[in-house]
Amino acid sequence: MVKQHQIEGYDQFSEFMKNFANTDGEVYVYFSGSKLPSGISWCPDCIKAKPIVEEALKLAKPNSHFIVVDVGSREIWKDRNCPFRTDPKTRLLVIPTLIRWGHPQKLEGEQCEKPELVEMLFTDEE
């Protein structure tokens, strides 16, 4: 079964990812807008992509890790100096973004709403 993790903010993300330097299995990281008190993301595109990503995740190898990272409030995300934008390991341009960690595969924005692309990211051998 895919191990799922929920992370809030850049500092927690940076610390958490140190655990995955030499892990077995694939690591997928999904960046999304943080949740409002209602439990729903402030990001409309993230809301649209979420069910598609969750459905395709069923195709990932059982020893994989799926890490959902809430990047912060809309104000934090829109700041050009947001560390998720400036960190060379993430360099996010848009949310949602789905990355196969340690590999070049990355889906951004509306690509995360296309089931065939998301499924390919979770099942592609290389």
Key terms:
single chain; 126 residues; alpha/beta; Glutaredoxin; five-stranded mixed β-sheet; 5 helices; 20% strand; Thioredoxin domain-containing protein 17; disulfide bond; TXNDC17_dom; protein-disulfide reductase [NAD(P)H] activity
Report on the architecture of this protein.
The protein is of the alpha/beta class and 126 residues long. The chain has a single domain, classed as Glutaredoxin (3-Layer(aba) Sandwich). Helices cover 31% and strands 20% of the residues. The chain has helices spanning 10-17, 44-56, 74-78, 83-86, 115-123, and strands at 3-8, 27-32, 65-70, 97-100, 106-108. It has a 5-stranded mixed sheet with strand order 1-3-2-4-5, with helices on both faces. Helix 2 (44-56) links the parallel strand 2 (27-32) and strand 3 (65-70). Helix 2 (44-56) packs across helix 5 (115-123). It starts with a strand and ends with a helix.
The domain tally reads 1
Question: Which strand order spans the largest sheet, edge to edge or round the barrel?
Answer: 1-3-2-4-5
Distance between the termini: 21 Å
CATH class: Alpha Beta
Largest sheet: 5 strands, mixed
Radius of gyration: 14 Å
What is the molecular shape? globular
Fourth CATH level, the homologous superfamily: Glutaredoxin
The total count of strands amounts to: 5
Class from helix and strand fractions: alpha/beta
- Give start-end ranges of low-pLDDT stretches: none
Into which percentage range does the β-strand content fall? 15-25%
Elements, N to C (H/E) = EHEHEHHEEH
Assign a percent range to the helix content: 25-40%
CATH topology (level 3) name: Glutaredoxin
User: Do you know the CATH architecture?
Assistant: 3-Layer(aba) Sandwich
Give the count of helical stretches.
5
Provide mean pLDDT, rounded. Answer: 92
